[in-house]
UniProtKB/TrEMBL annotation:
Signal peptide: none annotated. SUPFAM superfamilies: NagB/RpiA/CoA transferase-like. It comes from the Eukaryota. One of its GO terms (molecular function) is ATP binding. Keywords: ATP-binding, Nucleotide-binding. This is 5-formyltetrahydrofolate cyclo-ligase. One of its GO terms (cellular component) is mitochondrion. InterPro entries: FTHF_cligase, FTHF_cligase-like_sf, NagB/RpiA_transferase-like. It catalyses: (6S)-5-formyl-5,6,7,8-tetrahydrofolate + ATP = (6R)-5,10-methenyltetrahydrofolate + ADP + phosphate. Belongs to the 5-formyltetrahydrofolate cyclo-ligase family. The keyword ATP-binding applies. Gene3D superfamilies: NagB/RpiA/CoA transferase-like. GO terms for biological process: folic acid-containing compound biosynthetic process; tetrahydrofolate interconversion. It comes from Heracleum sosnowskyi.
């Protein structure tokens, strides 16, 4: 009888021990059973009267990360970082390849066709209600050597009715770009005449930082009023709003800073309108983009206005 009871007690303690701590190893379990078994008192009637004692302290702890595991984790992190660098490098390579192709297409463009498209694009802008109603705009000064869509007629149209204080009869202000350094620093300065422009080292016209009276020109980032639109250049575009610049990042940086300024001041975001020759419009999603690439709202080609963003549909229809 005693032998049977001992076996039964051992089985019971084994089950209780496993329920109490299923993570105990087989080598630890017998010691726990023996310690607990010896704490029972058997009476003459062979009934079990357990003497309750606190369970022995468990020595189990989560396994430490081994040096191998640490090495593997570090390696995985390095691989992830390397993959990001590789992806970024691949994106830049795709952009370079695309720029080379578009530049070749622009170079092969018939001069007569190019002149016709220049006139058509500018006429579309000047006839548009969203242009006529704007009170302030930033626009690029086209460079023929870069084969950019011409903006000379457009800028002349703005400046024809502009007074010496930089305001037109409709209260319109015009800001044009001036590159300050090679670190993506470009400002948009207000002009009132073509006489305010000077040629830089690359023979591209830019505003003189000082006016005829020796005063600093108004910077759009410091102006008291917002502009309604930006007229943007670029190498290639698609109908989903992607824009491929020349790789300097000047416009993306400026646009990001201005959009943040507009948010801070509670102004309406400007309409971003790009001008494009027919050969510069590519199929959708062909242009690779990065998080810092600013999309455009609308695209003006010789065929007409292409509305892209919800903002463009709201303002241009």
């Amino acid at each position: 009888m005693g032998s049977l009871l001992k076996k039964a007690a051992t089985k019971l303690l084994f089950t209780a021990a496993m329920i109490h701590s299923p993570t105990l190893s087989p080598t630890t379990l017998p010691n726990l059973i023996i310690n607990t078994y010896t704490s029972f008192n058997y009476s003459s009637t062979c009934s079990l009267n357990p003497i309750l004692r606190p369970p022995p302290p468990l020595t189990y702890a989560p396994p430490l990360i081994s040096a191998v595991s640490k090495t593997m984790s570090t390696h995985a992190a390095n691989q992830s970082s390397a993959a990001t660098v590789i992806d970024h490098d691949a994106l830049l390579k795709q952009k370079r390849i695309l720029r080379t192709k578009v530049k070749s297409d622009l170079k092969s463009m018939d001069p007569a066709q190019r002149a016709q498209e220049d006139i058509a694009i500018q006429n579309i802008v000047m006839a548009a209600p969203w242009y006529k109603s704007c009170k302030g705009l930033c626009a690029y000064i086209s460079c023929s050597s870069l084969r950019e869509v011409d903006t000379s007629n457009l800028l002349s149209h703005v400046l024809q009715t502009t007074t010496k204080d930089g305001h037109s009869q409709m209260g319109r202000k015009l800001y044009v770009p001036r590159v300050e350094d090679k670190n993506r620093h470009m400002r948009m300065l207000k002009i009132s005449s073509v006489d305010d422009l000077i040629a830089n080292t690359m023979n591209i016209l830019e505003p003189n930082p000082l006016d005829a009276d020796g005063n600093e020109r108004e910077d759009v980032m410091l102006a008291n009023d917002p502009v309604d639109m930006f007229i943007l250049p670029g190498l290639a575009f698609d109908k989903s709003g992607r824009r491929l610049g020349r790789g300097g990042g000047y416009y993306d940086t400026l646009l990001m800073n201005y959009q943040n300024l507009v948010k801070e001041r509670g102004w309406k975001q400007p309409l971003l309108v790009a001008l494009s020759y027919s050969v510069q419009i590519l199929n959708e999603h062909v242009i690779p983009v990065a998080p810092y690439d600013i999309p455009i709202d609308a695209l003006v080609s010789p065929s007409g206005l292409i509305l892209i963003s919800e903002t463009a549909f709201q303002r241009c229809q």
